[in-house]
Design brief:
The chain has a domain of 140 residues: 3-Layer(aba) Sandwich (Rossmann fold), CATH 3.40.50. Helices cover 36% and strands 20% of the residues. It is built from seven helices and eight strands. The strands form two sheets. Strands 2-1-6-7-8 form a five-stranded parallel sheet, with helices on both faces. It has a three-stranded antiparallel sheet with strand order 3-4-5. α1 crosses α2. The termini are far apart.
Length: 219
């Protein structure tokens, strides 16, 4: 890292792990990578801290004619977070169509990544939510809502890079926020990585298969 960018997601995860060193080796810690881009970052964090890793599927709800702009996000368990300022400008039919499509994709990915494992349980855990970056914060906001709904004892949001505006909005919602790189102005997350390839389902599955899994009932 040269101070303004990361070589790749694994390198970003190494930087995050250094900042999260106080959680190393704890059996009550579960690192949750936001699918899909957050998984390689989270895998590096979990590996270095010697803690468990799992996936958290969040789907951004993008404006139909500009998908990069989010009007909300979906998470497992029926959690939906909406940015009312953006959603109010859309026709209800457009909103419903996007929600329906992304709900189906969320269910598909949950089936792939959980691979028959029981639904995610966070009761009594320290949930460390990891993504590859924070732009609007819609996905992270949904992830925090999911962690709270699943009774996490403590919610930590950790991202390598984030916009100051999104970080300020999210900080009151979590117990701890870790973000080593906070550039201003902020463009796109991809600008802060030398390698920002699209993470595949296969890459996610491989990371989860090789990771430490938290034994059922362990906190």
């Amino acid at each position: 890292m040269d101070g303004s960018s990361f070589p790749d997601r694994a390198a970003a995860g190494a930087v995050l792990a250094d900042a999260l060193g106080g959680y190393a080796g704890r059996t009550d810690v579960l690192v949750l990578g936001l699918v899909r881009g957050g998984i390689p970052v989270a895998a590096a964090v979990a590996g270095r801290l010697d803690v468990a890793l799992d996936a958290l599927v969040i789907r951004k709800l993008g404006v139909p004619w500009s998908p990069e702009v989010a009007f909300g996000a979906l998470g497992p368990g029926g959690v939906m977070v909406v940015n009312d300022d953006v959603a109010a400008r859309l026709e209800q039919g457009d909103v419903d169509a996007v929600v329906s499509r992304e709900s189906a994709e969320l269910s598909r990915r949950e089936a792939i990544y959980r691979r028959g494992r029981p639904p995610l349980s966070l009761a009594g855990t320290v949930a460390v939510l990891v993504d590859d970056g924070l732009a609007t914060g819609a996905s992270a906001r949904a992830a925090v809502a999911v962690a709270r709904a699943l009774s996490a004892a403590r919610v930590v949001l950790a991202v390598p890079v984030g916009s100051v505006r999104a970080l300020r909005a999210l900080e009151p919602l979590v117990d701890e926020l870790v973000c080593p790189l906070r550039p201003a102005p902020f463009g796109a997350v991809s600008e802060f990585y030398d390698d920002f390839h699209q993470v595949s389902d296969r890459e996610v599955a491989a990371a989860l298969d090789s990771a430490r899994v938290r034994p059922p009932g362990t906190v």
